[in-house]
Amino acid sequence: MGCCSIFLGVFYNGSRTMVHAPELSLEEKKSLYRDGYLIVKQAVQPELVKAAQKRIKRAERGENLGGTPEMTNLVNASMVTPILNEAMGQFDPPKACQVGVLPPRPPGDYFNSLGYKDKDMPYYGVESHMDGLCTIGVPQEVQEGTDEEIYYRYIASGPKGDLGRSADVMGHNFVPLFEDREMTLGMGSFTAFVFVCLNDQTKPGCGQTSLIKGAHHKTQAFFRWQAEQGNKMGPEGPGWPRLNHDAPNHCGLVYLPQQVREQFIDETSESTPDGVKWPRPTQVLMEPGDACMTLFHIPHSGSRNENGTESRKNIIFRIRNKSRQPNHRVNGVSDHPDRGQMGEWLEYEEGNNPWERSKHHLCNMWEEWEGMQDVVAEMEAEAT
Hints:
Layout: E1 5-7, E2 10-12, E3 18-20, H1 26-35, E4 37-40, H2 46-57, H3 69-76, H4 80-87, E5 98-102, H5 122-125, H6 147-155, E6 192-197, E7 210-211, H7 216-228, E8 243-244, E9 252-253, H8 258-261, E10 270-271, E11 277-278, E12 282-283, E13 291-295, E14 300-301, E15 312-319, H9 354-363, H10 373-383
Antiparallel strand pairs: 1-2, 2-3, 4-13, 5-15, 6-13, 6-15, 7-12, 7-14, 8-9, 10-11
Helix pairs in contact: 2-3
């Protein structure tokens, strides 16, 4: 039989360890198209999972593990790389990642990024968003003044201080307020998320990543509508104000445009005390070694680890198809790779407008998924 064999999407290596096959099945690709995410069972070999678990366990307080090989090997040395190479295309091997460890905790009495008290948010405190958005810490006191006064006070409270409304304004997450100097693109972007699970997350309410299933189709449609209105995209473009002045603190971030949110509100949606209904997310339930792969366009969020007995451990990678910017390397963690990790301006060759390329891919999310083209064509034909 040789060193390995594949049966029904399951790959057995020489030691007879069961891991996922090095490519997605047709049904898995159809699920990814339909839902915008896919749980890839046993995408990461057990020895890689154990090495990462041990590295986290012996970490010193305040230590950044994102660049350690035990973390980056969860993609670089696992089945995740061949699976993504086939389904999406070539990408830079991650040099860094986000180590998402969430200890158990009760609901909090603080204002979250949406401007609501954490304890008042449904669905274990989910704050559904897309990545690449500038997040300055929201004020913990109810804001007074006009909407304009609150806006300028808010953007002046970032780590760089008062720069006015400018693409040089940075969030506390080091994402720029705008990606380009002309301030026509209010968000960064990439191609795919990968969340690798390192602990048992099969019981709801244990800090799982949550996402709005199928919402990628609606976010793409919204970006296309924004582009048609004059090519200003993301927050502060048409239909997407940056701040919600009706939030309890009068200065909540608008993480999703209303045109998208309202399509996922129904009679089952839960409300905050002010009567606002919120889209019900899907909790991603995984076991150690599983990986959740999603499109950039999927709204998602961490959630409160309210029911867990241990810290939730997800290792998070942000992947961009190499074809978008062949001469620029991305690090695997940045959600705004058209700028430097800390918001620095990068050099591009003449004729290469990175902002317009990224706008194009916001409007054409499947173009960078090279191995999905036949499935996308088939599924889109069935939908018409």
